[in-house]
């Protein structure tokens, strides 16, 4: 007799327990993405906005007899580096002087002249010197005292060994283009449409002596004009030579 083996059915409760265990195991062994922690960062302070070209102002200085001894016409822009009281580090500030707010003063001697421009808590002093032997003058000194709102304390920038704005006695010095005058490590002065004449002023500016920047601008059209003139001359010469050769080819019968 062949024995009969009966298949025993697994209880439904056991099946449910097995499925639950498998599900829990897969959940625990699944890859868990790393948690990303957002780090709060403070944005750096915005860079100072550079203003456009400054407005041109006209200034003069009179001597003891109330005669004008110094004339100046220029736009001025200050570029200053200082420690900011609000940021606690060195910042750079670019400021325009406003002619309608500026008060001018100064003095003149035989071989020296000063122009002082004041606006709010800013005082800018130009010191010109004259070499009576060569009859040449120059800007030898510049001083800026400033007490801006964000400065921890007022600052003074000074240089008395400059050699800017060199001109001949009785003539004016002119520089229409922007020119950067380096004064100290933390201060430079940008000039725009500048014309100045210290000493021997006869009512108005004398003949202008232009700066290198302006002369370079004039040199380019001169070179181009000279090149065109040479080209035209070559064409004319070539035409005349060709015409003479063609006439030489004919003979009288």
Automatic annotation (TrEMBL):
Sequence ranges assigned to domain Lysosome-associated membrane glycoprotein 2-like luminal in this UniProt record: 54-201
TM regions (residue ranges): 218-241
Topology within the bilayer: Single-pass type I membrane protein
CC terms in the record's Gene Ontology section: late endosome membrane; lysosomal membrane; plasma membrane
Major location (coarse): membrane
One Pfam family this sequence matches: Lamp2-like_luminal
Localization per record: Cell membrane; Endosome membrane; Lysosome membrane
Domain Lysosome-associated membrane glycoprotein 2-like transmembrane: 220-251
Biased composition annotated in UniProt, kind: Pro residues: 45-54
Keywords noted in UniProt: Cell membrane, Disulfide bond, Endosome, Glycoprotein, Lysosome, Membrane, Signal, Transmembrane, Transmembrane helix
An example Gene Ontology biological process: establishment of protein localization to organelle
Location of the region described as Disordered in the Swiss-Prot/TrEMBL record: 39-58
Family membership noted in the UniProt record: Belongs to the LAMP family.
Entry protein name: Lysosomal-associated membrane protein 1
Record organism: Onychostoma macrolepis
